[in-house]
């Protein structure tokens, strides 16, 4: 088998030269994380939010409907199939059950109430995207997983059946019955679940081309000049899901933040933008509402249309923007 072009024999590489953090940033970051930062977390618990299991049991055809379940977990119903992205149900995204970032609100849809899922799209193996217990629960129901190179070995070691796993390199695709194509695309990020396994598995984004609709799930990425190429090769898109939270100037190469998410949307051809990777965990020093507030301001300047559902709210996607303003009810 030919080695991937973005693999140097030891580790996977980003599509452009990337430093995870600027030189000398590590200890500054540690000091900042140990300091108190106002409004990093909500003053009181959010929610509870609830997705309608009854609504989700009815799967519309030739329709695009999206339910944001928090962070990067989305239930995407497109043209008669359901895809679940980076599913996280448990309370902490950490190697430890008693330490690490804790959810601001419970997942709005109990795992036992999920409707039938056609495939899980798993972008990379970080804890806030790959939740071991959730993945095991899903694969025990024989739900297939489409993921990036190297991640499958981790899943098999956990007990997932190998025949349920499809691994993709960037620009590779897999077909699904009914006229669906899932393509892995590059992103500017990294992988690993501990300090000794960084870059050992691939990370990326996904395009799901359905009979009627075309979607881009951007997962985690710093901004770079590759979004226009993705649009040229695989667009146009009806909707893009892009990360807006967990940013900081010291690691801007691997998390783009709200303003760069707007620019990436322009590069992608101005699809509707649904922001992800915010409002669920405290993974940086910024106030928890800041990402969406900055996004709204920048999108207005650049005439980018946003879809901002409340957690658990199912939104049928057409060409119109939508803003639930759910976060304004909380401090």
TrEMBL record:
A Pfam family of this chain: Lactamase_B_2
Gene Ontology annotations for the cellular component aspect, listed alphabetically: cytoplasm
InterPro entries, per database record: Metallo-B-lactamas, NAPE-PLD, RibonucZ/Hydroxyglut_hydro
Keyword annotations from UniProtKB, A to Z: Hydrolase
GO MF annotation terms: N-acylphosphatidylethanolamine-specific phospholipase D activity; zinc ion binding
Domain called Metallo-beta-lactamase: residue spans: 82-278
The keyword Transport belongs to this UniProt entry's keyword annotation: no
Listed name of the protein: MBL fold metallo-hydrolase
Organism: Flavisolibacter ginsenosidimutans
């Amino acid at each position: 088998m030919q080695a991937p072009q973005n693999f140097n024999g030891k580790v996977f590489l980003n599509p452009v030269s990337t430093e995870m953090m600027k030189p000398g940033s590590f200890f500054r970051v540690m000091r900042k994380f140990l300091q108190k930062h106002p409004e990093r977390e909500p003053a009181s618990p959010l929610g509870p939010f609830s997705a309608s299991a009854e609504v989700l049991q009815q799967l519309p055809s030739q329709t695009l409907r999206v339910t944001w379940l928090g962070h990067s977990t989305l239930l995407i119903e497109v043209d008669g199939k359901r895809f679940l992205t980076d599913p996280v149900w448990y309370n902490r995204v950490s190697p430890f059950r008693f330490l690490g970032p804790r959810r601001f609100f419970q997942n709005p849809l109990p795992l036992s109430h999920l409707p039938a899922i056609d495939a899980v799209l798993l972008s990379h193996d970080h804890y806030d995207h790959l939740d071991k217990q959730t993945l095991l629960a899903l694969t025990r129901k024989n739900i297939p997983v489409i993921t990036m190179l190297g991640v499958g070995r981790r899943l098999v070691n956990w007990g997932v059946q190998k025949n349920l796993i499809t691994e993709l390199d960037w620009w590779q695709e897999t077909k699904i019955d009914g006229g669906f194509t899932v393509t892995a695309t590059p992103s500017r990020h990294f992988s690993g679940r501990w300090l000794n396994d960084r870059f050992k598995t691939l990370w990326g984004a996904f395009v799901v081309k359905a009979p009627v609709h075309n979607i881009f799930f951007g997962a985690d990425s710093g901004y770079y000049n590759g979004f226009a190429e993705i649009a040229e090769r695989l667009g146009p898109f009806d909707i893009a899901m892009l990360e807006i939270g967990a940013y900081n100037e010291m690691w801007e190469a691997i998390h783009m933040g709200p303003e760069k998410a707007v620019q990436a949307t322009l590069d992608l051809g101005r699809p509707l933008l649904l922001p992800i990777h915010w409002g669920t965990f405290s993974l940086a020093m910024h106030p928890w509402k800041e990402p969406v507030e900055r996004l709204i301001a920048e999108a207005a300047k650049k005439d980018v249309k946003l879809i901002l559902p409340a957690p658990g709210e199912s939104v049928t996607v057409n060409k119109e923007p939508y803003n639930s303003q759910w976060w304004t009810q909380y401090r």
